[in-house]
Amino acid sequence: xxxxxxxxxxxxxxxxxxxxxxxxxxxxxxxxxxxxxxxxxxxxxxxxxxxxxxxxxxxxxxxxxxxxxxxx
Length: 72
What we know:
mainly alpha; Arc Repressor Mutant, subunit A; three-stranded antiparallel sheet; 3 strands; 49% helix; 10% strand
């Protein structure tokens, strides 16, 4: 299992290697799709109870740091 960050993992045995929240089958992309559609973090968390608020925030912060690092 490859670690993408503290809370996002990639495992070829889980959703064909799609990055998911650790300990779940919830793709990180689902969170991004919710936010892109104008939904709130609370709405995402209500629909995906296995993802904690802290994990969602940490994943977003990790993604932000990775993007800013690539731009810099």
